[in-house]
Amino acid sequence: MTDADTLKRAVGLEAAGLVEDGMCLGLGTGSTVAFFLLFLAERLNRDGLRNVVGVPTSLRTAREARELGIPLTSLAEHPSLDLTVDGADEVDPRLNLIKGLGGALLREKMVAQASARLAIMVDESKVVTSLGEKSPIPVEVVQFGWEAHECFLESWGARPVVRRLPDGQPMTSDNGNYIIDCHFSGGVDDAEALDGALASRAGVVESGLFLGMATHVLVSSQEGVRSLFRDEPT
């Protein structure tokens, strides 16, 4: 197991401890979530955790959860969730996030917005001073006329790169859309303004900016797992 996997395993175990009997959960997507699902399944099968159901945010998560025997449901059946557990690509000091390098940003945001609490699992390398320092911001767009967004994104200081498969074809999300990864040199100057501009742009389905949504961030390091909460002073 790599050092990165060790950190992911530790934070996944910690996050699984947040789940209580009777919860309706949002189940995020990614390699860290895979460890969380493993430990959640252990609690269900070994520790007697009861009446827990999950809404998966991707086809990948749905498959992994079914293989582990985790009961699944949908937002149609449970439009209000108690807790979503997910990963992130960056976390800033106000617990704003960049998500979506796994390609599930639209469903992840829908599930997060339906949740009373959003717990995020990261390792310490994902904690940044400002969003966009290390990670591009994914922007999901409809296939029709997607190239027209490139100049718009460049006007905001981004270097847009459509995400592609190994054969060079654009990658499609679970929703059948393309994803444009927006790279910002030195980070984003005004994430709130960019988020608003993207939300008002026809053809943009969703962005990987998750602002003011995380309530709890678990940060894994060699020293252990520490918790950050949104209501703490920064």
Task: Please describe what this structure looks like.
The chain is α/β, with parallel strands linked by helices. The protein folds into two domains: 3-126 and 211-222, Rossmann fold (3-Layer(aba) Sandwich); 137-206, Alpha-Beta Plaits, CATH 3.30.70. The protein has helices at 3-16, 31-46, 59-68, 105-113, 149-155, 191-199; strands spanning 24-27, 53-56, 83-87, 90-91, 97-98, 118-123, 137-141, 159-162, 178-183, 204-207, 209-210, 216-221, 224-229. The strands form three sheets. It has a six-stranded mixed β-sheet with strand order 2-1-3-6-12-13, with helices on both faces. Strands 8-9-7-10 form a four-stranded antiparallel β-sheet, with helices on one face. The longest helix has 16 residues, at 31-46.
- Which word captures the global form? globular
Q: Classify the fold: give the CATH topology of the largest domain.
A: Rossmann fold
Structural class, please? alpha/beta
- What is the CATH first-level class name of the largest domain? Alpha Beta
Radius of gyration (CA) equals 17 Å
Strand order within the widest beta sheet? 2-1-3-6-12-13
Runs in which pLDDT lies below 50 for 5 or more consecutive residues are none
Q: What separation lies between the terminal Cα atoms?
A: 35 Å
Number of helices: 6
Helix content class:
25-40%
**Count of β-strands:** 13
Strand proportion:
15-25%
Sheet having the most strands: 6 strands, mixed
The CATH architecture assignment of the largest domain turns out to be 3-Layer(aba) Sandwich
